[in-house]
Write a structure and sequence with these properties.
heterodimer; A: alpha/beta; 8-stranded mixed beta sheet; 10 helices; globular; B: alpha/beta; Purple Acid Phosphatase, chain A, domain 2; 4-stranded mixed beta sheet
Chain lengths: 320, 267
Amino acid sequence: MAFEHSRPRLEPHGDPDSAPVLHAGHLDALWFQVTGTLCNLRCSHCFISCAPENDSFGLLPLEEVERRLQESVALGVREYYFTGGEPFLHPRIVEILSLSLSYGPTTVLTNGTLLKPRQLEPLAAAAAASRWSLEFRLSLDGFDADSNDGLRGAGAFERAIEGFALLLAHGFLPIVTVVRSWDPDREPEVYARFIAALRARGCAQPRVKMMPAFRIGAEEKRAGGYGESERVTNRMLAEDDLDQLVCAHSRVVTDRGIWICPILLDSPDGRLGDDLDPAARTPFALAHAACHTCWLHGAICENPGAAAPEVGAPARKAAR
Amino acid sequence: MIWFAARRVALFGGVYSNHLALDATLADAAAAGAEQAVCLGDLGAFGPRPDRSCEILRRAGIPIVQGNYDHSLGHGLPDCRCGYTDPRDNEYAALSYRYTFAHTDRGHRAWMRQFPAEIRISIDGREVLLCHGSPRRTNEFLWESTCSDAFLGWLLDETGADALCVTHTGLPWTRELPGGRRVVNVGAIGRPANDGDPRVIYALLIAAEDGGPPEVEWRRVTYDHLALAAEMRDEGLPEEFMVTIETGWWTTCLEVLPMKERARGRY
């Protein structure tokens, strides 16, 4: 059967309660930790504690991005994601994103507070000339300063909304990405308020993506960490659609090598070596608490629509 | 397995219970000299009286690839497996699925369960793989702006086919790859292509005179879309669905659209 060898699978095991070891499937998405852990903000819920002085991961040079893009072609990679830190702290981010757009679909995750017309004008031109989408994912955690700035810092809302307006003015349709920090019962109301807030800022086609929080890094200090029982086991994955796990089809390029996923940068075992191939095929033990969030919610880091649950798969976990 | 060989084949997907567009498409395909028509799946959803489309297709006796909607209806799953997360999209998708499930005859649902996941045909010696979403996953969206050439090339490598034809997104596009290979998304005939034109689209795949990869002729089909909208109103379907049929602009299930495709639309 075509594709059988390119589907994710679990290492055979004898213990249903042990951590599953996942062999990834085809490498669909290549992520770039383009500004490492450097960020102009200091959000209290950041899963890797990014901050202005956090240089545990550094900037990726343009040449390194280009080398990895070239390598990705032979692997049949579908799309590229750029994250940090804050990608717009990178002095060559416009060249990097434009280069990526000559290879394939490109997404950049930004807090929106540093965007400048002199960056967005050439990016709008590069996006118009490309057959592929350039997606901006703009992080906001509240629909007004009161609900946002408690997590993201004083003044962050107004500056992000200015960035949002600038993106609209340059023809982009940013996906506002929101980390859930409210009671699940309030979700429909919170969602409606986000949509209304974006419409009020002149956006006729609002796009909102809701994400769960990862209770690691700064967020662990803010909201508490995971319980002992919040771990993924072989039993839990036995009938699951493994493609819902981000590491089943993604890897991350950092200045310290290839990493398993964008969330586990602080985990030393997340480093899979220096070469994309074989790192794309290196098995990984899903022993981390954050893996539980990924399993529970599924496909959390990708753009909407990138990973619908498999047609034959059981309904998503009711507990989400 | 090759189902048949031909030089001129009509390929359409996403019927979405639009039985008036389906009738018009089959008539247009015959008028355009298609030797054979193939449906790439998703008979139900969105439109009125799903049994009517099933009856037309059964009568026509044409091959059908299984779509995610056909799979869900056939196996009695709780939803369509389009994978929406946006609450508004989920609400419309759930409403549409409940209506379609309740109005699809049990015998038609059993029939849908037997559709194959893929069909291979030969166009003048070129092997063409027909499937619903992608050859590796029935509900994978292959949008024009989210598929790198490297990825499409890999899909073709894996299948060994010279050309790949899909639907599922509802938006038509085609791309020629190095080595004379081609990928085609044939669009959908159940709702218009989000471009302000109420007509629907399907693809005529034609053997190239020079022996190159099969060529695509896009066919825009006029049908009585106002009559369909009136029928949808009679059935109590949401007003947003009728707006799409009447104006040609998508109003729902927008969350999964990538930036380029979304920006071309109105909503």
